[in-house]
């Protein structure tokens, strides 16, 4: 199976990184997700670009957030807003202007999902109670982790107006490489399958948080059909990129 990443200026991140051009190219609310309270996931934010929903973002420091690189493809900082403290896409919360977008120097691979990560430096500080710490060590295969987002709840639905949560199970990254022929061979990805309740990421969840033991372990990057047991989900590995994240934040 081959995959492509949608890079249209209007739908790149909202659609997510689709991993098979013959399958739906849009990835939104958590597939079979459950409604979540922002007070339980205060680090989860979302990104708007030119007035349109672009996907998730995750608060990691006073004025820093993380997202998937394909979510900000084609956008300069002044065209972006990060919304915090908001579980609804349509009301509440606080908009934060983006001062700078910093992509990994090795550049995002739109056919491999390598380095699908971007740091967003914000103009205003965010209360430390909304930050999430970054995991620095690998998560064992078989671990159940929590994912949040506003993505599709089925292959034929649209974005969820309300924040959703779900669980997925970490598997060997080789299973993702076997499923998606072009996927990067380096250690910058995590791979997961549907959790015990059949939940998974879907269109529009890109850039959202994957969390284990109250630590950020991954960012939603891509996948094939939502909920298809033969289509594992791809995440960007935070432990693998922790050094780059920390040094970039500290030097800026």
Automatic annotation (TrEMBL):
Pfam families, A to Z: Trypsin
Domain Peptidase S1: 30-250
Keywords, ordered alphabetically: Disulfide bond, Hydrolase, Protease, Serine protease, Signal
Extent of the signal sequence: 1-16
GO MF annotation list: serine-type endopeptidase activity
GO annotation terms (biological process): proteolysis
Matching PROSITE patterns: TRYPSIN_DOM, TRYPSIN_HIS, TRYPSIN_SER
InterPro entries noted in UniProt: Peptidase_S1, Peptidase_S1_PA, Peptidase_S1_PA_chymotrypsin, Peptidase_S1A, Trypsin_dom, TRYPSIN_HIS, TRYPSIN_SER
UniProt xrefs under PANTHER family: AT26814P-RELATED (PTHR24276:SF91), POLYSERASE-RELATED (PTHR24276)
Family, per entry: Belongs to the peptidase S1 family.
Name this protein carries in UniProt: Serine protease
């Amino acid at each position: 199976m081959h995959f492509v990443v949608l890079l249209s200026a209007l739908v790149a991140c909202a659609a997510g990184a689709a991993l098979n051009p013959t399958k739906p190219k849009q990835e939104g609310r958590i597939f079979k997700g459950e409604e979540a309270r922002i007070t339980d996931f205060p680090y989860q934010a979302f990104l708007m670009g030119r007035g349109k929903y672009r996907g998730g973002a995750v608060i990691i420091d006073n004025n820093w957030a993380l997202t998937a690189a394909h979510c900000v493809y084609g956008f300069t900082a002044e065209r972006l807003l990060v919304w915090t403290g908001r579980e609804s896409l349509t009301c509440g919360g606080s908009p934060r202007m983006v001062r700078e977008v910093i992509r990994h120097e090795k550049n995002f691979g739109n056919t491999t999902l390598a380095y699908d990560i971007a740091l967003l430096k914000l103009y205003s500080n965010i209360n430390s109670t909304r930050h999430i710490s970054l995991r620095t060590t690998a998560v064992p295969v078989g671990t159940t982790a929590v994912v949040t987002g506003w993505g599709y709840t089925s292959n034929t639905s649209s974005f969820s107006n309300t924040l959703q949560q779900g669980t997925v199970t970490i598997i060997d990254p080789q299973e993702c490489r076997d499923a998606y022929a072009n996927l990067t061979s380096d250690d910058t990805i995590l791979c997961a399958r549907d959790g015990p309740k059949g939940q998974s990421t879907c269109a529009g969840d890109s850039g959202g948080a994957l969390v284990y033991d109250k630590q950020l372990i991954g960012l939603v990057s891509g996948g094939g059909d939502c909920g298809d047991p033969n289509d594992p989900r791809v995440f960007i590995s935070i432990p693998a990129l922790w050094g780059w994240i920390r040094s970039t934040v500290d030097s800026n």
